[in-house]
Every structure is written in structure tokens, then in C-alpha cells.
């Protein structure tokens, strides 16, 4: 007998899930621009597919990134994903031993223990193939149940996981969560009771079944339990597409899209939709988000994505973010959180933009320079920085052309951050032309905000450098002599320099070359809070963000050195210790070197 | 007239009876902080866009209070959203945020 009515809830749920998910993936694929579709077509049969599969195994099953962030969470997610996956695969292989058919109905391996009672095999017999499977399946079930325990503890005691808070759920999530939590205990009981009545089962189910048989009427209970187990599975599958658990499938979709579609896919509507479904609500971003820490958890990606999934883009959530990248750097799923927020802002603010062409002609250039220098709006508010850079250029004998000597127009990055992309483009076009007209082979800027947009959106044929990288190069090439005269200080890495990039590494290297002893630098990767990414600027939360940032940056009351004029100004407002730009420090040291 | 060093200027009177105060009322509902502006002009002194022409964020602040919706919308187009005004304001007014809202005025129909 290989059918029983109790398999129906499971089978219907599974069928429904497959239809809904197939439709969603089809929708995402159809929505891709033709160019990306062609790229995908070319890459399907190539090493990109292998790379994608490897990443799916690594992140979808083993959750390597999550392990690195938070081992306890990593174990929890892995026990569910890997444990369940192996249960399905091994269950399928095991069922082949008992069925003569080549193709079994999908429910057969899932409910195998109901259909087959193989009491010839002893529970601890590992030498025979069925005995081995029996043991392994029970072991895997135990493994999943251990993860379930942790999940339950996390709900009630999130601090044990080193997390400040855990995530909130909507109705579909809660029902799906309940179903998921019931699936494995029900499976354990159904299999144990069946083993208790008919024999069979592994070390866990057999023992438990035998123990419970002494005082429970198992022969009446085992059949309803199989119904309950099937029902829990069916409910879970039905709700999966509407709950956070869609992330299991969407994450795979994102990984495939990323590998097949290349970088162009990352800014498509389909990828945004897929990646907002791929968020597993792990909550790792919540503890990184300074806006959340300052008392506004609604802004963190996990809450933001929940709103997006519900089809809403609340203004204060889309605009409250600092765009500091701290969340993106830690998100174990690798969601492009900054792009996603940017997209939301374009929906809110970018519609029908009215653009005034910038009234601007740059200062005159005398001769073709080595370096075109763009100080940036914010640097103009920091005359000490400007002067240091000028004097350093002079000392190093660099022929430079100061493009924005008379103030210039904005680089376009701040407008971009508001979602007014067309306005940003207008500014970018004017500046880009001026940069190209200079004929220089290198563009140096003092402002990481400008640096970001020069690198990512100007499409310049020349090299672009932040001044920290440039001065490091000049020192390495011997064009600048700098003494190691600095005492201990706190190095602050500006967000827009991108903490994970080589630019940040170069800045750290430069800092280590300025001090007498490199161990005396502490590093801070806190956003100063003055970020132009946060569109509602000056309220209590912003002040709290900056206060926290200044407190955590200015450790041991040592001076702070940063690489961004906006960070410098903002931090200085919230701390008593002196805050300076790294260029100012280099200038002081090089002047000291000269005197010696 | 020009040869005498005089020039007739355009009439700049504002008829406050015809002021459209719905913008101020809407602002009061949506945003906080802008009322703190004391008209010191620090924002205009540093403004990136002001250096390029006649745009003047302080003036925009005043026009809002005087209910000159059309002028506000026309002026705000020139703001480059650079945020210098926000950094220098002694009264912690986020002028950039206001400008962003005003930029959208031309696309939003009046109540
Ligand atoms: S955005 Fe990333 S880090 Fe945040 S909850 Fe989702 S998966 Fe986790
Ligand atoms: S970019 Fe920064 S402020 Fe925005 S959600 Fe991420 S961590 Fe929070
Ligand atoms: S700097 Fe601030 S207080 Fe002064 S005019 Fe501008 S907005 Fe008003
Ligand atoms: S954000 Fe606009 S108003 Fe403020 S300084 Fe920049 S250009 Fe001027």
C-alpha cells in the first residue's frame, strides 16, 4: 500500500508552492532588460553556473557568512537548512530500497516510516545499508531539533545570541513559523509511535517509541500524528511564498541572477524584488544600524524590507537611513541594501524631476597639469584642509589644476542620495566635461562623497584617488618626506570611502606610517551621523547618532584623525578632543621633517 | 535714465492678502525644525548654488513664510542638494530637506 488520505495536505501544499514560486521566478525573469537576458543566455552553460551552485551550497546550506558573524545563529540556520536538505536527499535514497518503482510520488520518502515497517533491522545496527540509513535519518532529525531548540530560545532570549533585539513578524510569518516549529517534533512523534507499534525506527525513534508505549495508547495515536505532520507541512508550504521563509528560494534566485547576469543585473527591478524576498530576517543588520541603535529601529534594513515586501515605501524609513553601508557589509545574504534604499528613494523623490542646468563655468586653466584637484563643497568649509593640501602639492612639486577653486558646483552625489537621479546626472555631466578638458591623467579629491560618485558614476577614463591614497603614493615614491612624529590617535574611516575597499586599507596603511608605533592607533568605523544620506537631517535621533559615533570614535580621549571634511566637522561638534583630517597631519609632519 | 546712473526696477511688492499659506500649513504638519530659522543668512553665504547665480536659500525661507508658492518652486529648482547649508546653520535647520520638498512642488497639485 503506497497511498493513504493523510498525504493529501502535504501534496496539495507542495503543488501549490511549486506553482506560485515558478510563477514568481518567471515574472522576475521576464522583467529583466533584454541585454541582461542575453547575458544570462550566454552564461547558463558555463563556469558561472558552477560558481553559483557552489555559492548556494556555501551560503544556502552551510551559511558560511552567518557563521562568521554569529556562530550560534549560523548553527541554528545551518541545522535547519542542511539538516532538512539531507533528510530529504537521504530519505529519497532510502525509499529506493523499499520501492520497486523508479519514480516515487513525492510524499513517499517523506512518509516512508508510515508505509514501511522494517523490523528486521536493529536500531543500532550500522553495518547494513538500511540500518545505516535508519541511524543517519534519526541523527539528522536530532540535529534539526537541536536547531529548533535554539530558535525557540532566540525568540525569548535574544540577548543570549549577542543580539540586542530580535525581529518582529506579520501574521503569515507567525502561522508559518508555528507550522515550521511543529513539523519536526510531529515527525519525531509520528515516527516514534509507529516504531513503538510496529517495530523499526532508529536509535532515537525506536527508543522513544518503546519508552512511550509503556504508558501511552500508541496504536490509537500514531495515525492522527501522521495527519498532523502532513498538515503542518502543507500549511508551511502554502504560506511559504507569503512569509519570510520565501528567502530560502529567493536567495538561490538572487545568487543565480548575480552569477548569470553580472553587475548589470544588480540595478534591475527584478533583482530588487528578488533580493527583498531573499532577506532571511536574521537581524544581523539590526545591531549594526546606528539609526536603530539611536532609537529608531524601523529604519534598519530588516524593517525596511518588511515594508517593501508589503508593497509600501514609507517616507521616513526610506529617507531616514544614513547610507553608511554598515549593514551591507555584514548582511550574510549579501543583499545590495544601499542600492535597494536608493531605488526606494528614486520612487519617492525622483519622479518627474525638474532640472535647471547648472549655471557654471570652471576656473581657467593655465597649463596642462599632472593632477586635476577637486576639493569638494565640504572641503571649502574646512580651510585648514585646503591649505594643507595646497602646501603638500607644492612640497611634492606636483603640477595641479584646482578645478573648484571658486567653489564650483556640487559633484552630484548628494542629489543622487536623495533619489533625484536626473538632477545628479546634470551636475555630473558638467563636472565630467571640466575634468576631461583639463587633460590631466589623475583626479584627486579630498571628499570621500565626491570620490564615491567619481568612481561609480562618472565613467572617467583617468585614475581617481582620494587624497589619502595619493599622499601615500607620494610618500612611497619619495616625493614627500614625512617623519613618524604622531602620538597615539583614533583613526576614523569615512563611510563613503567604503570600509571593505582598498582605499580604506590604504588609509589605514598611511596612518600606520605616521605614528611612532603602529599599535597606538585605534580604528573607528562608525558613521559620523552627518551623512547626506540621511535626508531628514537635524533631529534628536541624528544628534544621538552623532553623539554615539563621537563617543565610540574618540576613545581614551585621544585625538581623532579622519579623511572626510564632513565627518571632521560633524564629529568636532560632538567631542572635545581635536578632530583633524589626515592631510593636515601629513602637512604638519612633513613641515617638521623639513625643519630637521 | 541709464546715463544718469538710475534704473527703473521691477515692482517687488508682495500682496500678503493674496498669500497662499497652505504651503506653510502643510510644512508645519510634515516637517519640524524649519520654524527655528532666524534668517541669519549663513546658508546663503555658503550655498553652492548661490555662488552660481541669484539663488538664495534664506530668501526661499522668507518666501515660504510669505506664501509665495510659485516663486518657491521656481527657486528651489536651482538647489544642488549639496548640504552645506545644513552643516553651517546655527539653528539646526535642515534647509536641504526643505529644498528637496520644494523641488517636488511643481509636480504636486495644490490642495
Ligand atoms: S537584510 Fe541581511 S542582515 Fe538584515 S535581516 Fe535581512 S538577511 Fe539579515
Ligand atoms: S546604511 Fe547605515 S543607517 Fe542605513 S540601514 Fe544600513 S546601517 Fe542603518
Ligand atoms: S543658516 Fe539657518 S537660521 Fe540662518 S538663514 Fe539659513 S536656515 Fe535660517
Ligand atoms: S543644499 Fe541647496 S540650498 Fe543648501 S547649500 Fe547646497 S545648493 Fe545651497
Features:
heterodimer; A: 596 residues; mainly alpha; Rossmann fold; four-stranded parallel β-sheet; 5% strand; B: 6 helices; 41% helix; binds iron/sulfur cluster
Low-confidence stretches of chain B: none
**What about the largest sheet of chain A?**
4 strands, parallel
Largest sheet of chain B at a glance? Answer: none
The residue-averaged pLDDT of chain B reads 84
Q: Gap between N and C termini of chain A, in Å? A: 95 Å
* Ligands present: iron/sulfur cluster
User: What's the total count of β strands of chain B?
Assistant: 0
Order of strands in the sheet with most strands of chain A:
2-1-3-4
Give the integer mean of the pLDDT values of chain A.
Answer: 90
Descriptive report:
The complex is a heterodimer of chains A (596) and B (111). The mean pLDDT of chain A is 90. Chain A has helices spanning 8-30, 34-43, 47-61, 64-69, 71-98, 107-110, 112-115, 129-156, 171-198, 203-213, 218-239, 247-261, 269-278, 290-293, 301-309, 315-319, 326-330, 337-349, 383-396, 413-417, 421-438, 448-457, 467-476, 502-512, 540-553, 565-574, 582-595, and strands spanning 371-374, 400-402, 442-445, 463-466, 489-492, 521-524, 560-562, 579-581. Chain A is 58% helix and 5% strand. Chain A contains 27 helices and eight strands. Chain A has 596 residues and is mainly alpha-helical. The termini of chain B are far apart. Helix content of chain B is 41%, strand content 0%. Chain B contains six helices and no strands. Chain B has a domain at 40-107. The A-B interface holds A 349, 351-356, 358-360, 377-378, 380-381, 406-410, 414-415, 418, 420, 423, 427, 530, 532, 535-539, 566, 569-570 and B 31-33, 46, 48-49, 51-53, 77-78, 80-84, 86-89, 92-94, 96-97, 100, 103-104, 106-107. The complex binds iron/sulfur cluster (4 copies). One iron/sulfur cluster binds next to helix 14 and helix 17 of chain A.
Amino acid at each position: 500500500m503506497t497511498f493513504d488520505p493523510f498525504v493529501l495536505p502535504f501534496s496539495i501544499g507542495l503543488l501549490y508552492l511549486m506553482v506560485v514560486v515558478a510563477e514568481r521566478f518567471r515574472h522576475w525573469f521576464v522583467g529583466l532588460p533584454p541585454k541582461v537576458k542575453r547575458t544570462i543566455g550566454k552564461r547558463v552553460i558555463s563556469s558561472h553556473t558552477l560558481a553559483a551552485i557552489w555559492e548556494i551550497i556555501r551560503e544556502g546550506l552551510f551559511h558560511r557568512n552567518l557563521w562568521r558573524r554569529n556562530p550560534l545563529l549560523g548553527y541554528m540556520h545551518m541545522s535547519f537548512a542542511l539538516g532538512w536538505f539531507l533528510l530529504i536527499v537521504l530519505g529519497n535514497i532510502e525509499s529506493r530500497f523499499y520501492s520497486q518503482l523508479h519514480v516515487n510520488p513525492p510524499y513517499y520518502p517523506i512518509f516512508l516510516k508510515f508505509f514501511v515497517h522494517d523490523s528486521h533491522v536493529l536500531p543500532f545496527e550500522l553495518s547494513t545499508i538500511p540500518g545505516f540509513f535508519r541511524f543517519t535519518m534519526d541523527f539528522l532529525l536530532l540535529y534539526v531539533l537541536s536547531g529548533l531548540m535554539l530558535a525557540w530560545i532566540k525568540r525569548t532570549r535574544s540577548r543570549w545570541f549577542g543580539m540586542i533585539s530580535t525581529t518582529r513578524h506579520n501574521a503569515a510569518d507567525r502561522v508559518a513559523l508555528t507550522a515550521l516549529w511543529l513539523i519536526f517534533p510531529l515527525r519525531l512523534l509520528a515516527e516514534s509511535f509507529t516504531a513503538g507499534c510496529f517495530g523499526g525506527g532508529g536509535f532515537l525513534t525506536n527508543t522513544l517509541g518503546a519508552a512511550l508505549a509503556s504508558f501511552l495508547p500508541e496504536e490509537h495515536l500514531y495515525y492522527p500524528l501522521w495527519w498532523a505532520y502532513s498538515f503542518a507541512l502543507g500549511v508551511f508550504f502554502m504560506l511559504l511564498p507569503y512569509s519570510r521563509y520565501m528567502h530560502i528560494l529567493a536567495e538561490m534566485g538572487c545568487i543565480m541572477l548575480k552569477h548569470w547576469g553580472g553587475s548589470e543585473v544588480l540595478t534591475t527591478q527584478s533583482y530588487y524584488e528578488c533580493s527583498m524576498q531573499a532577506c532571511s530576517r536574521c537581524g544581523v543588520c539590526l545591531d549594526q544600524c546606528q539609526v536603530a541603535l539611536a532609537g529608531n529601529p524601523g529604519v534598519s534594513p530588516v524593517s525596511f524590507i518588511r515594508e517593501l515586501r508589503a508593497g509600501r515605501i514609507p517616507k521616513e524609513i526610506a529617507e531616514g537611513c544614513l547610507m553608511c553601508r554598515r549593514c551591507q557589509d555584514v548582511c550574510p545574504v549579501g543583499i545590495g541594501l544601499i542600492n535597494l534604499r536608493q531605488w526606494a528613494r528614486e520612487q519617492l523623490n525622483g519622479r518627474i524631476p525638474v532640472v535647471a542646468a547648472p549655471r557654471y563655468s570652471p576656473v581657467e586653466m593655465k597649463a596642462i597639469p599632472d593632477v586635476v584637484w577637486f576639493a569638494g563643497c565640504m572641503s571649502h568649509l574646512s580651510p585648514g584642509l585646503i591649505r594643507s593640501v595646497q602646501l603638500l602639492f607644492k612640497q611634492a612639486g606636483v603640477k595641479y589644476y584646482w578645478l573648484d577653486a571658486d567653489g564650483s558646483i556640487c559633484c552630484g552625489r548628494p542629489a543622487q542620495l536623495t533619489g533625484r537621479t536626473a538632477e545628479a546626472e546634470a551636475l555630473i555631466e558638467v563636472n565630467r566635461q571640466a575634468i576631461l578638458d583639463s587633460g590631466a591623467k589623475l583626479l584627486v579629491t579630498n571628499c570621500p562623497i565626491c570620490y564615491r560618485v567619481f568612481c561609480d558614476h562618472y565613467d572617467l577614463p583617468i585614475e581617481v584617488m582620494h587624497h589619502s591614497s595619493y599622499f601615500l603614493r607620494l610618500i612611497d615614491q619619495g616625493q614627500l618626506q614625512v617623519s613618524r612624529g604622531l602620538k597615539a590617535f583614533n583613526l576614523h574611516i569615512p563611510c563613503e570611502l567604503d570600509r571593505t575597499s582598498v582605499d580604506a586599507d590604504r588609509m589605514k596603511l598611511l596612518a600606520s606610517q605616521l605614528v611612532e608605533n603602529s599599535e597606538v592607533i585605534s580604528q573607528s568605523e562608525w558613521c559620523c551621523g552627518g551623512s547626506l544620506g540621511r535626508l531628514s537631517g537635524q533631529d534628536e535621533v541624528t544628534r544621538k547618532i552623532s553623539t554615539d559615533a563621537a563617543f565610540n570614535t574618540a576613545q581614551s580621549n585621544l585625538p581623532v584623525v579622519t579623511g572626510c571634511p564632513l565627518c571632521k566637522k560633524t564629529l568636532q561638534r560632538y567631542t572635545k578632543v581635536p578632530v583633524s583630517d589626515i592631510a593636515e597631519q601629513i602637512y604638519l609632519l612633513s613641515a617638521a621633517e623639513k625643519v630637521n | 535714465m541709464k546715463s544718469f546712473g538710475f534704473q527703473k526696477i521691477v515692482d517687488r511688492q508682495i500682496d500678503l492678502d493674496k498669500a497662499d499659506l497652505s504651503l506653510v500649513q502643510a510644512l508645519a504638519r510634515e516637517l519640524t525644525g524649519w520654524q527655528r530659522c532666524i534668517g541669519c543668512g549663513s546658508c546663503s553665504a555658503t550655498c553652492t548654488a548661490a555662488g552660481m547665480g541669484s539663488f538664495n536659500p534664506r530668501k526661499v525661507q522668507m518666501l515660504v513664510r510669505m506664501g509665495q508658492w510659485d516663486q518657491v518652486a521656481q527657486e528651489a529648482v536651482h538647489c544642488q542638494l549639496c548640504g552645506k547649508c545644513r552643516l553651517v546653520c546655527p539653528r539646526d535647520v535642515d534647509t536641504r530637506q526643505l529644498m528637496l520638498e520644494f523641488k517636488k512642488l511643481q509636480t504636486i497639485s495644490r490642495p
